[in-house]
Amino acid sequence: MAMTATKNGHVNGNGKANGDGRGAYRRTRPMPPQAPVREEVVPPPARPEVSLPDYLEPEGRLLAPLPKEDVVAASRFTREEVAALVGLYISIQKTRVGASNRVSAHDRRVDTLADSGMARRLKGDLEFLEAQTRRGLLAYARSQPLGRWCLANCGVGPVSAAALLAHIDLTACACAQYRGIPRKDRPAHPCPGIVTAGAVWRFAGMDPDVKWERGQVRPWNARLKVICWNLGKCFVRNHKRPECFYGHLYAARKRQEEERNAAGLFAEQARARLSDARQGGWRITEEMRACWEAGKLQPAGLELRAIRYVMKIFLSHYHHVGRTLLTGSAPEAWVIAHGGHANFIPPPHWPLEGEEAPAVANGKAKGRRKTVKA
Question: Which helix (H) or strand (E) holds 26?
Fold first, then answer.
């Protein structure tokens, strides 16, 4: 039997609606569900080229190269000024990387709000500022014999060489009785300076026995530690080049670390890492847990061990060359003088071609002498 309904929803059984019948409707069966219609994705339209103002056009560049007088003046900077210039270079580099990421996101149509023309121009200007800052750092590094030795090694650039010269002062006090006291508060006393390479390792944060406890002053130079890390990565990137001495040391050490790890020689260290992770509540993956429980170190850990090894060798050579320039001779390593070791890796490119060790009088270097090449 058909049923009708009124506007107010009252229905009688004989199919007639109560009331005046206005707005009456008949109940029907619901329609079966239909498959959703797939809409075709239309790519966004291409952006029109943005016309830059005159003062932003390449012909109207406001940035100018550093004059020669300023570059020469950079070679006479103090350590504090060079350290500040290195920090400025790193800040400019980070900003340039951010601008490059915006340009890349625009090209991949990920960032739809970036102004491509402005971002590309800013990226170019930042690269220009980086190059000019690098010129000043290169002039400073070339003005010192130790800096020229650094630049002679493949993988060491002007920024790293200038940063090492600025942060590592081989004439600074490293006496054990004054350790932990600021240099300005130390009394005047005869100090030979940094005599051992281990003091340089400790200052760069590469002494595994030194721990930074809560409430204590950081026992190493954080900026120098970052610089050494970046320099170690440069050796890694250039380890296949035949002229990269420290890159070859890295490759050989990494193979040795992998062989030792496969033989289970790092089982004790792996258990110690697992114990520290459990006590400290570290967030570790199942792969890390399984690797440590098996008495093996992770491949990433072996990579870091090889990088630290080659950086310690480089800092030892840096100390050897620096002490030779200061006093005419470098002290013998403790492991060779007292530890029974006999293998010595001489610094590459030393002495530099066309230069000799400085003349020494009363234990101090008087200056450097140059030889004329035929």
Answer: strand 25-26
Residues 16 and 347: their CA atoms lie apart, in Å, by: 109
Write out the two tokens for 72: 């020469």
pTM confidence score = 0.76
Peptide bond just before 347 cis, omega within 30 deg? no
Q: What is the pLDDT of residues 36-71, one digit of tens each?
A: 666 665 665 555 554 544 444 444 456 788 899 999
Write the burial class of residue 97 (CB in 10 Å: 0-12 exposed, 13-18 middle, 19+ buried). exposed
- Count how many domains the chain has: 1
Q: What digits encode the pLDDT tens for the residues 314-329?
A: 999 999 999 999 988 8
Residue 6 inside a domain? The answer is yes
What integer best gives the mean pLDDT of the chain? 82
Domain span at 1: 1-27
Six-digit token pair at 156? Answer: 């060491």
Least Cα distance to 138 among 160, 120, 110 occurs for 160
pLDDT of residue 362: 41
**CA contacts within 13 A on the Cβ side of 339:** 9
Note whether residue 107 is domain-resident: no
Q: Is residue 139 in a domain? A: no
Q: Within a domain: residue 10?
A: yes
